[in-house]
Amino acid sequence: MVFWLDRWTSLPAVQHLYYFPIVLSAIALGMTGGLGAAATAILLYHFANPRFLTLRYAEADLLQMAVFLAVGIVAARLAEDTRRVRRLAMTDDLTGLHNLRSFELELNRVVREALVRRQPVALMVLDVDRLKGLNDEHGHLAGAEAVRTVGRLVAECMPPAAIACRYGGDEFVIALPNYSASTASILADTLRGAVHADAPELAGQPFPQGTLSISIGLVIREFNDRLIDMSSHSTDELGEELFRAADEALYIAKRAGRNRVHASGGASRQTRATQFSTS
């Protein structure tokens, strides 16, 4: 459209409209899109003004084409910087997992979709066993690297659909959309086993297998068993209910001896506990 307007009018004001598709392409497709759109604009700029095909350029024409390229590059850089800042704002700096703000948004989305599709949601809450003793004996750097190690194993063991977050010092929460009780419990025990089997290097010092362990509270909420009255339950409230139930299950796992998974079948007031794994 800009090409036809340019060809019809040959006005500099109309030629500035080429900037819009350049900027949009740079935002959507990055540097490749910005440079590709700028090159396309330069080509159309020539065909709209046939005298340029003979390479008869005025200074303003060369400047116009240079600005097309500059706009594509700058818009792509700004768009990438904006995406990077957004990722940093939504990511935990120690583990690279979601931070609490990002997780809350994702959990709301998961609960909303589960309500619409009548699907279950599993939620794990876990923390590192006896981290204070590790801090006291080997220093806080070793403790921080222990948390980072657990975060790495969470990222490795969880499926792509999982939403994992570090929401406190050594505390993690993981949402699993559309996971049954049996599948979620197997996944939780796989993660527990992977942490216990890891031989970490903490503060530059190697440690044997079994140095680290985690306790996991697991809750599975079936959203397909009954209709939820959304006039009295928001997705925030349903997410908080899931978290409280999983957090209570975590404390049961802790009291039972740590390095284990304790599963609950629903909200805290309707808990059906089953121990899936012990140390």
In short:
With 279 residues, the protein is an alpha+beta fold.
Summarize the structure in words.
By secondary structure, this protein is α+β, with helices and mostly antiparallel strands. The chain is 56% helix and 15% strand. The protein is built from nine helices and eight strands. The protein has helices spanning 2-9, 12-15, 19-48, 59-89, 100-117, 131-138, 140-157, 181-197, 235-255; strands at 120-128, 163-166, 171-177, 201-202, 205-206, 214-222, 261-264, 274-277. The strands form two sheets. A six-stranded mixed beta sheet has the order 2-3-1-6-7-8, with helices on both faces. Strands 4-5 form a two-stranded antiparallel sheet. Helix 5 crosses helix 9 (235-255). The longest helix is centred in the first third of the chain and has 31 residues, at 59-89. Residues 267-279 have low confidence and may be disordered.
Features:
single chain; 279 residues; alpha+beta; six-stranded mixed sheet; two-stranded antiparallel sheet; 9 helices; 56% helix; elongated; disordered C terminus
Strand order of the largest sheet: 2-3-1-6-7-8
Largest sheet: 6 strands, mixed
Overall radius of gyration: 27 Å
Helix content: 55-70%
Protein structure class: alpha+beta
- SSE sequence, one letter per element: HHHHHEHHEEHEEEHEE
How many angstroms does the end-to-end distance come to? 69 Å
Give the total of beta strands: 8
Unreliable runs: 267-279
Shape, per Cα inertia axes = elongated
Give the overall average pLDDT.
Answer: 86
Strand percent estimate: 5-15%
**Helix run count:** 9
Topology:
Layout: H1 2-9, H2 12-15, H3 19-48, H4 59-89, H5 100-117, E1 120-128, H6 131-138, H7 140-157, E2 163-166, E3 171-177, H8 181-197, E4 201-202, E5 205-206, E6 214-222, H9 235-255, E7 261-264, E8 274-277
Parallel strand pairs: 6-7
Antiparallel strand pairs: 1-3, 1-6, 2-3, 4-5, 7-8
Helix pairs in contact: 1-3, 3-4, 5-9, 6-7, 7-8
